[in-house]
Amino acid sequence: MAVSIKRAYEEPASGDGKRVLVDRIWPRGISKDEAKIDLWLKEVAPSTELRKWFGHDPERWQQFQEKYHAELQDNDALAELKTLAGKGKVTLVYAAKDEQHNNAVVLRDLIGHRAK
After folding, report:
1. Segment 95-99 long-range contacts (CB within 8 Å, at least 24 positions apart)
2. Class of residue 14 by CB neighbours under 10 A (exposed 0-12, middle 13-18, buried 19+)
3. Angle between helices 61-71 and 103-111 (to 10 degrees)
4. What is the tens place of the pLDDT at every residue in 32-79?
């Protein structure tokens, strides 16, 4: 399973495979054409409440991961993402500025692929 992550503001590349947006909200300032998103899985993103609570505070990272894992139990969108990743290269696209503390990192690790 080849799963990588990439900010929505980075240039799409031919090696990205299927590009899946894993945020609940479309990234600001990017058109759908520019983003080259193949699938938008809003349902796999953290709840609005969890996202606001976390606020990308690195001190809350561990708790965020635990709470997010709990939200993802029996999540059909996560199952769809795992199936897609089993078929080929997938790039999880996210908008957060923090490249180490965001939901795409959690999803990538859940699917079974660790960072470089």
Report:
1. 95/7, 95/8, 95/9, 95/23, 95/25, 95/27, 95/28, 96/7, 96/23, 96/56, 97/56, 98/56, 98/58, 99/7
2. exposed
3. 60
4. 999 999 999 999 999 999 999 999 999 999 999 999 999 999 899 999
What token pair was written down for 105? 């990192």
Going from the C-alpha of 32 to that of each of 4, 21, 48, the distances in angstroms are: 20, 11, 22
For residue 17, give both structure tokens.
Answer: 């495979």
CB 24 within 8 A of CB 103: no
Scanning the chain, the segments in alpha helix (DSSP H) are: 32-35, 48-54, 61-71, 76-86, 103-111
**CB-based burial label for 111 (10 Å; 0-12, 13-18, 19+):** middle
63 with 57: CB under 8 angstroms?
Answer: no
pTM of this structure: 0.92
Neighbours of 114 (CB within 10 A): 7
